[in-house]
Amino acid sequence: MFRDGVIDLDERIELEDLLLEIVGEDEGRTTALDRPTQVAFDDPLPTLEFPDWSYVLTGRFAFGTRKICEEEIVSRGGAVEKNVTQQTRVVVVGTFASPAWVQSAFGTKILSALERRDRGRRVHIVPEQHWLRFLS
């Protein structure tokens, strides 16, 4: 994985799975830090598009820094917003909880998306791993 100094998308997913296995947790984990965000995810998870779609990122990402994640969206024709607005189509929740979240397991971005969704707006809330599938 590290021989060529570049980690591709499949290797990032494999590395994430390995790290979760090492710490004794799996995708179905329900710790106090991730239970509410799991409830918030769209079910079923949607097909994601990038051209003309606006994204908001929250949490910390296994894929890379926030800037790298934003660049991936913009390079595919999407837009990135700092906060949830009327234009937001997708909120991507990073694999790792953010210490900045004001609620027990999520912050104001997820709360804002949930409120907009409750008012009939089309805002998808997806986990990082789902978002990664659409980068390839």
Secondary structure: helix percent: 25-40%
Q: Estimate the mean pLDDT confidence.
A: 81
Top CATH class: Alpha Beta
Secondary structure: number of strands: 4
- The separation of the N and C termini measures 18 Å
By CATH, the architecture is named: 3-Layer(aba) Sandwich
Radius of gyration: 15 Å
Helix/strand order:
HHEHEEHEH
Kindly give the count of domains. 1
What oligomerization state is this entry in? Answer: single chain
Enumerate the spans where pLDDT stays under 50 for 5 or more consecutive residues.
29-37
How would you sum up the global shape?
globular
The CATH topology, please? Answer: Rossmann fold
Which class best fits the helix and strand makeup? alpha/beta
Q: Widest sheet: strand order?
A: 2-1-3-4
The CATH superfamily appears as BRCT domain
Report what the structure shows.
The chain is α/β, with parallel strands linked by helices and 136 residues long. It has one domain (9-133): Rossmann fold (3-Layer(aba) Sandwich), CATH 3.40.50.10190. The protein contains five helices and four strands; from the N terminus they run ααβαββαβα. Strands 2-1-3-4 form a four-stranded parallel beta sheet, with helices on both faces. The longest helix has 14 residues, at 9-22. The radius of gyration is 15 Å and the shape is globular.
